[in-house]
Design goal:
About 25% of the residues lie in helices and about 25% in strands. The chain folds into 2 domains: about 70 residues, 2-Layer Sandwich (Alpha-Beta Plaits); about 45 residues. It is elongated and about 50 Å long. The chain contains 4 helices and 7 strands. The strands form 2 sheets. It has a 4-stranded antiparallel beta sheet with strand order 2-3-1-4, with helices on one face. Strands 5-7-6 form a 3-stranded antiparallel beta sheet, covered by helices on one side. The protein is an alpha+beta fold and about 140 residues long.
Length: about 140
Amino acid sequence: DSAESSPSVVFENIKTCSPNCLQMLLENISNLTVDADFTVELIPEINVAVATFMKSIDTKAFVKKCSQDKRVREFKMTARLLESTQTIKAENLPDNISTEYLTVYFESARSGGGPVSDVQLFPKENSAIITFCGHKGNT
């Protein structure tokens, strides 16, 4: 059962593949549609993209299919499941944001959040570290 596997797949070494090309490639491999079935977030600072599937798919099988794909290999990209984490960093926060607001925001199920155990605010950096009570059981 893939219920415990992540709905997100990390693609590393994406610099030789344009964002549009990457989206089309993932559509071709998954037979799904970007925006309707999954989203792609680029993180160019670390040469990575994250595909998150809203439609329930076997992401382990998808990662295996990607690693065997001729085009993925030509671009020298790698794919792996995104690990679960209990802590995230939120950046570019507005001035004067409160820990209470961040707690409520990240506990919102609509935003994919869950119970928050701690929020550390770093006003000088306009960032915060949010720690969740545990790994999400359901999506």
